[in-house]
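Please decode residue identities from the backbone states below.
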């Protein structure tokens, strides 16, 4: 059945997901805080900065008016960077006059509180303004979804019927959605894989090869699972789409902003310059800090996250932290 859907965040992922919903014949409106970008989407039918070369359908509209955008919406999709999520959710709750299903497709942990995004949304949007919160996450570069490349993804919610609702909203011949009830595992996998992608890119930038990439991905998955399980996740989730699937797509692709950032750091560029030139969110940088602090708090061993934290936040040299990480106390692969 045709649904009215508001997409909050007109960056690369918000636009690509709006295209999927539009393809599925839903009534979709994008919300952005940039008048020039809204004009471009409505009049030129492009969003060049975020999805160059993509022609948008003429019936895909954008607006700056949040109240109008969410009025009567059956579902509201939040897809702004993690650092903006609480602010945008708060603005939404001030103008919302109905009870839509809340979906989010962002990947990160809130700074300082270390909270998952669905918890931030639940705190800011009281049950009188919403139905369930569903997480949409998995291996899915916006650039490939926008050209209808085959993609699989997960809709996670404790309430199976809400996950099924989101599955039906988005699924089509090139975009296949699975349901999952392990929200903690899905959100932790999604957030933490970006840290490992920074590392994978850095190894590439330094000239290391396939063995090094396999090492960081495999041992990265081990530490993602350790922290995730400590937070209450089902360990099996980490071999699914939002675990190994998203780790693979982010650690091996030039589409990944996290991988590209790591690659340029490995080549010797400085972080501020790289982030400034990227012009899009690189979630792994802030997530590294949140995960490092969370791991310290919970006494979980995360040597790769710690190494990347030391490079990003203490200015240590990548080559020396790699050597230290390789030579730390030897251990069994079977230790969890
Ligand atoms: N790109 C991808 O392939 C995928 C991304 N994701 C995740 O989706 C989330 C969004 O990423 P993505 O779309 O790629 O990011 P982009 O950087 O491409 O776009 C982010 C959008 O959010 C807007 N925004 C930022 N802050 C605010 C705010 N306070 N109020 C309103 N709008 C705001 C930005 O506007 P402005 O121009 O002002 O910055 C921009 O339009 C991230 O968590 C990312 O990890 C998940 C899967 C795939
Ligand atoms: O999450 C993504 C693909 O699943 C996109 O990764 P980047 O944010 O690194 O581009």
């Amino acid at each position: 059945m045709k649904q009215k859907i508001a997409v909050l965040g007109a960056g690369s992922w918000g636009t690509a997901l709006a295209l999927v919903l539009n393809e599925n014949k839903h009534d979709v409106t994008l919300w952005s805080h940039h008048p020039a970008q809204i004009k471009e989407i409505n009049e030129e039918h492009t969003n060049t900065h975020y999805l160059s070369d993509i022609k948008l359908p003429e019936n895909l509209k954008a607006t700056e008016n949040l109240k109008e955008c969410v009025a009567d919406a059956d579902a509201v999709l939040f897809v702004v960077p993690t650092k903006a999520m609480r602010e945008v959710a708060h603005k939404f709750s001030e103008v919302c006059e109905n009870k839509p299903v809340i979906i989010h497709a962002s990947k990160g942990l809130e700074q300082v509180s270390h909270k998952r995004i669905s918890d931030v949304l639940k705190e800011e949007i009281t049950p009188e303004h919403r139905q369930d919160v569903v997480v949409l996450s998995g291996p899915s570069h916006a650039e490939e979804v926008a050209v209808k490349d085959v993609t699989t993804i997960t809709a996670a919610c404790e309430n199976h019927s809400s996950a099924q609702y989101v599955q039906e909203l988005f699924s089509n011949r090139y975009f296949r959605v699975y349901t999952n009830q392990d929200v903690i595992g899905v959100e932790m996998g999604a957030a933490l894989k970006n840290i490992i992608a920074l590392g994978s890119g850095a190894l590439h930038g330094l000239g290391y090869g396939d063995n090094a990439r396999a090492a960081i991905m495999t041992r990265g998955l081990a530490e993602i699972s350790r922290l995730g399980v400590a937070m209450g996740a089902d360990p099996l989730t980490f071999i699914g789409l939002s675990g190994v699937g998203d780790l693979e797509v982010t650690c091996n692709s030039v589409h990944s902003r996290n991988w590209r950032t790591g690659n340029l750091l490995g080549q010797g560029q400085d972080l501020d310059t790289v982030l400034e030139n990227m012009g899009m969110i690189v979630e792994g940088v802030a997530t590294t800090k949140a995960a490092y602090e969370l791991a310290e708090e919970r006494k979980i061993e995360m040597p790769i996250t710690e190494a990347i934290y030391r490079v990003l936040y203490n200015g240590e040299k990548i080559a020396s932290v790699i050597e230290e990480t390789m030579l730390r106390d030897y251990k069994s692969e079977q230790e969890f």
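Observation: The chain has two domains: 4-181, 191-327.
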